Amino acid sequence: MTKEELIQAFEKCFGKGGEPAAVFSPGRVNLIGEHTDYNGGHVFPCALTIGTYFAARKRKDRLVRFFSGNYPQAGIVERSLDALQYEKSKGFTNYLMGMIWAYNERYGLMADTGMDIYLWGNIPSASGLSSSASVEVGMGKVLNDLFGYDISNQEIALTGQYSENNYNGVNCGIMDQFAIAMGKKDHAIFLDTATLEYEYAPIALSGMKIVIACTNKKRGLADSKYNERRSECETALSDLRKVVDIKALGELDEEAFEKYQAAIKSPVHLMRARHAVYENQRTIRAVELLRAGDVNAFGQLMNASHVSLRDDYEVTGIELDTLVEEAWKIDGVIGSRMTGAGFGGCTVSIVKDEAVDRFIDEVGKNYLSKIGYAADFYVVEIGDGTDDLK
User: Fold this and answer.
1) What is the pairing mode between strands 333-339 and 346-352?
2) pLDDT tens for residues 228-247?
3) pLDDT at residue 159, rounded to an integer
4) Which residues are part of the catalytic machinery?
5) 298/289 Cα distance (integer angstroms)
6) Which of 113, 112, 110, 114 is closest to 93 using CA atoms?
7) d(CA 387, CA 52)
């Protein structure tokens, strides 16, 4: 969507009256390092060239009016700056109102007038590509633009996480918002979630593409199981801390984990902790391999990540497993794994250019045959983080 198209859509909805602020906020995909972010480990996400577009303009009253081009049947949804509390019936607007609330909670910055906000996104809904974080970070940028706030992109990311945790009630880590706010074209972000130290690592995929496959499964379980897994890891950490001085599972390498694992009482909690530790170490190795230009070895670590998420963390399910296992059969697939919280959502694969069409055709056909409904495929590029739309 161009800036001109976005403004036209805004004015069709809210009328003319001064040019609105225009913002693009990407989705993200995590190449490796899944369910490590809340365990004090490393992640390796990148921003995508698909995302959420915003046009916004101040009003003279206290009303905040939202219109989503993705849900036109909902019409204009009205909220008020005098009623910032979460309202389940107001759906997607809670992610936006949550940011207004969080700016006030964290910085004492309260919007002094209402707004008209139009948004439209091309991130598949409930795909695991972080449409909610895209909306949160984009809304932070909108607030900066309209009210002259000087909140950095990194702080916007932290505010998005704060809002999701405390306003929307999802106990997410920092990865999604950070990758979306801080993305850089043709680079992934090697982020230590314990310290927020990060560096950009170039992704040189010469002759290869990143292909996202969306299961199209309705993800009713994801949030509840996410919080359950997080709790299981916290219990495992509590057991381990009786025998080793650590603040997070991410502080252990494989050798230390093997040494102390007997302290974990529950076999299930042991599996969860093993994934968190080993996945973190895979992520650290993955970045070293990419720096050395060894994409094939990186692909093998992607495959191992999926096996661990399937067997030790148990967050895949038949849909994700089918997409990945069918991908592994295709000559020209460097690596394939689930990405995101799990229980539906998406896989991410690195595929040689000459195999992309066959990959989409054969994986799609076999998925439809086994699951009974179709997957969607997206050939994506790595883009920049949230910014004004040029």
Assistant:
1) antiparallel
2) 999 999 999 999 999 999 99
3) 98
4) 176
5) 6
6) 114
7) 11
Let me know whether 177 and 247 are in one domain.
no
Range of the domain at 135: 3-203
Q: How many domains does the chain have?
A: 2
β-strand pairing of 187-192 with 42-43? antiparallel
- Residue pLDDT, tens place only, 279-300: 999 999 999 998 888 999 999 9
> Has residue 223 been placed in a domain?
yes
Q: Do 105 and 128 fall into the same domain?
A: yes
Residues 113 and 191 in one domain: yes
Q: Is residue 137 part of a domain?
A: yes
Measured CA to CA in angstroms, residue 317 lies from 29, 223, 272 at distances of 19, 15, 16
Q: Say whether pTM exceeds 0.85.
A: yes
SS3 call for 190: strand
Which of 172, 203, 234 is the last residue before a domain boundary?
203
- Rounded to the nearest 5 degrees, what angle is found at the Cα of 62, between the Cα atoms of 22 and 65? 45
pLDDT at 222: 56
- Tokens describing residue 280: 């973190």
192 and 254 together in one domain:
no
Residue type, 30: N
